[in-house]
Write the structure tokens for this entry.
Amino acid sequence: MEIIKIGFIGIVGILLAVPLKNYKAEYGVYMGIAVCLIIFGYTTRYFTAILSAINQMQGYLKNNYGYLTLLLKAVGATYACEFCAGICKDAGYGGIAGQVEMMGKLYILLTGMPVLMTLLESIQSIAG
């Protein structure tokens, strides 16, 4: 039921931001940022469940945490870039939002390169 609360907060935030945007544009942007931060506050409640799942994954990996670290970096970069790009789009700076998204994609590609290289080395060693 948390998703209904978050959706309701988002809709109410938009309904409040639109009239404010007509009065003064920067107030609409401030309202959008405030709603984003409130929703982010709700999402932090799920971090404990995520951390317990990560601890369980660590038990399966048996001290080989390199891949888990890469996965978490990629996921964190994805969320951070999406959050920042959303704020930029709301503020009317779609070009900057596109650049933030592009940088996020390149960072994820760079983060995944060691996994790809290990996979290619394994295939090469099997193929002979």
Notes: Residues 65-128 form one domain.
